[in-house]
Amino acid sequence: MHASESKVYSVLVADDDPHIREVVRFALKKGGYNVVEAKDGRLALEAFKTHNPDLVVLDIGMPEIDGTEVCRRIRLEGQTPIIFLSSRDDEIDRVVGLELGGDDYVTKPFSPRELVARVKAVLRRVSPTPTAADTPAQESRVLSHGSLSLDLDRFHAHWAGTAITLTATEFGILKTLMGFPGKVYSRDELMTGAYGHGTVVSDRTIDSHLRRVRSKFAKVDGEPIETVHGIGYRLGNCIG
Question: With a threshold of 0.70, does the pTM exceed it?
């Protein structure tokens, strides 16, 4: 794909504060994104169904329907990446949002440049690797370890042939672990692999993502992540 033909991503910005929507819209458009706006949770869900955005920037405290409920309903439709916004730097608030399936969390007041960087990082994790226009189609890159397989180009995860639906961050965690199956990764190393360098998140945020990954695989009797107490995490035997 030539640079001139590269995909222009669309972002739904849902926040009841018109000033914040204006700031975010300006920053995202400057970054090359198309922007759709919603001023409350009900309109956010309507805009999501109408425009099918590539990513959602979602305020937690909104009228009509709050952001956590909007997230729940979006997750019933699929795994569109979600970045939460909140005016509170409350750890419980943060963890609850991520437990619901959010990919990232930004606390107000925030730097518009930082938000755009987070949007870019999340979209990069879920976007397939582009193939040159003059290159024949290639088979997708797949990482396999026991019953676990990750299709890096199609963003699919399977356990013993059963599809597992993961958010961008959850997929990034497993991809990092599969890079060196025997290696024990610290929390910081897992988040660097999932988020990229320069992003700081708390231990509870990391643990929240890990719990979600484990709970999803537990439904199909899968145990891909092994805890090494006092050190970190590694890929388990992955025998299903």
Answer: no
